[in-house]
Amino acid sequence: MSEPASPRSDTFGPDLAEVFGPAQSDGGPDLVQLLTPEGERVHHPEFDHDFSAEELRGLYRDMVLTRRIDVEATALQRHGELGIWAQLLGQEAAQIGAGRALRPQDYVFPTYREHGVAYCKGVDPLRLLGLFRGVDQGGWDPHENNFGLYTIVIGAQTLHATGYAMGMQRDGVVGTGDPERDSAVIAHFGDGASSQGDVNEAFIFAASYNAPVVFFCQNNQWAISEPIERQTRIPLYQRALGFGFPGIRVDGNDVLATYAVTQAALQRAREGNGPSFVEAYTYRMGAHTTTDDPTRYRLNDELEHWKLKDPIERLKVYLRRNGLVDQQFFDDLDAEAKEMGHHLREGCKALPDPKPLDQFGYVFSEMTDEIAAQRDEFAAYLASFEGSHS
Amino acid sequence: MSTSQKITLAKGLNMGLRKAMEDDDKVLLMGEDVGKLGGVFRITDGLQKDFGEDRVIDSPLAESGIVGTAVGMALRGYRPVIEIQFDGFVYPAYDQIVCQVAKYTYRSQGKVKMPIVIRIPFGGGIGAVEHHSESPEAQFAHTPGLKVVACSNPVDGYWMIQQAIAHDDPVIFLEPKRQYHADKAELDESATPEPLFTSRVVRAGTDATVLAYGPTVKTALKCAEAAASEGRSLEVIDLRTLSPLDMAPVLESVRRTGRCVVTHEAHVNLGMGAELAARITEECFYSLEAPVLRVGAFDTPYPPSRIEEEYLPDLDRVLDAVDRTFAF
Fold first, then answer.
1. How far apart are CA A241 and CA B110, in angstroms?
2. The domain that contains B205 carries what CATH number?
3. Residue A188 pairs with which residues in a beta bridge?
4. Gap from A197 CA to chain B (nearest CA, Å)
5. Is A284 among the catalytic positions?
6. Structural domain contains residue B236
7. Contacts of B60 in chain A (CB under 8 A)
8. Which of A103, B15, B55, B136 has a CA 20 to 30 Å removed from the CA of A126?
9. What CATH number should be reported for the domain whose range is A25-350?
10. pTM (2 decimals)?
């Protein structure tokens, strides 16, 4: 009996290698890029944007200050002032590109690593530290800056983002043609979260209701110790089509491309054309958090390779090469970064600890009699020690 | 003109939902099959037709998605009322309920409110297949940040659902599905309801107190009827609220009677009865003539329906427990 000639041992369905192409470690041919790692400006037929010199300097400044926030917070953890810190080192372009594409009326649903996006939305970086210091669980008012509270359960916020976007649809702030009014939501998450049921359910709800939400995935290649290959067998951005909306992979270390792609995705949502997926292809240059030890699971060569793609360096090269900055610019920015560091160091140490009885507040919109009774009992217990050490 | 009419629990809930939607255009209903079908129990019957698809939303079949998007809607200023089709289907949404719905107000130090009502048909007795007859109330009552109530009759269904929707905190709203289309009661829409988080003495008595909620209120009232014919006077309290508990009427009653039996369809181990027994013991120790006894389901999974009546607390098992409290 003769077997039919076939190049594949598995003839069930299409050849995935043909559909998706070979595995790519550099982002592959679909990667949208406007600024190469060497600082060379390139153009893209679909996603391009004319950046003024001022815009370019602004994006550079934002990334430098964001890195400073991260470096200071990491140092504060090392000095025992924070219990833990989730570092964003290497992801500055992804966050600033996405953050600067937002309009004031747009709403952000972050993970716990969106320090750069928070900064773009006007949240004082000092307010981010409370959660990591253990004095609160998110010290800012989400509605004040349209920046949601950090969400620690992986992927849960993508559903909140979708529901919020459904609310926007009902409020008539989508597709009106008024740029001051039309709004969108951006849902941040990472490559690890793409495996979560909630994220996949968010995709389905958003597609089903055509909700104005941009799913912005920072694929930083690592979910703590697990490489991207453990989460997906196909490039993440290609998953979106299966849910019924477009997916774009952008160079997440290229702030210009990230801005252009996210801006287009948000505009699409604001105009009432529904959800989309942006995969910002980047790299977590630091540890998952300050408690993590990446030397146990990844090679230093990989880090060295990605250092060559540093998001800040490439824009610096471009700005210098094109004479868009002078030494005064760098001196001023350095002073500003130092001031930011001072603000965080001094501010962090001055954050007041909550009082023992504070834990009873805010369980509900109004304290119930049950909780008031527990508070009073505990207060009396604490009071029973007063004067006992004299 | 009289505003009174005789209604079932299903009708009471339906009328209450309609009234809440008329009163506040931020109220949205969402769930599986709640639109054209009116829900598998027809609780939302006719509401999509009258309020439109933007306010009565048929959702994809994903419970975590339903609850998670409701969180987002609440953040946007809406008051979502969501239907979990059956008790046993709530678990895919458990994370969103426990980690998000219950904790958002606390996390935000009161800056964010979560006015979400999660309606769950609960309890057994309808001859259903697995996962359709469960009583998960203790799992939610054990979660700080959630309020948990259970209605037992058509009139309470009408008022309590409106009160839960108007409330600014998340409410797990349990509906005894066996009662949906059973007994009718007289509803006076012009009446003033009692506050939501209160328990109620539904039959006065002097010899022992029986605590019940949801589907077991009817059982407890039958017990009191039967006991009365034997010369024993049982006081029956419909707890109505499971978290927070309204202990005042319970403690007042037990101090008078000295005996107490708690009955619920949920498993006895670590159930509502355990908490009630502990609190009664702490507060009424010197008034008790007997330990507080619990009558509920065994600590076994819900059985095949042909033997479910041997699993659920019934008149005889509750009366047997009452007898045992008199043996001390």
1. 39
2. 3.40.50.920
3. A216
4. 8
5. yes
6. yes
7. 201, 204-205, 208
8. A103
9. 3.40.50.970
10. 0.96
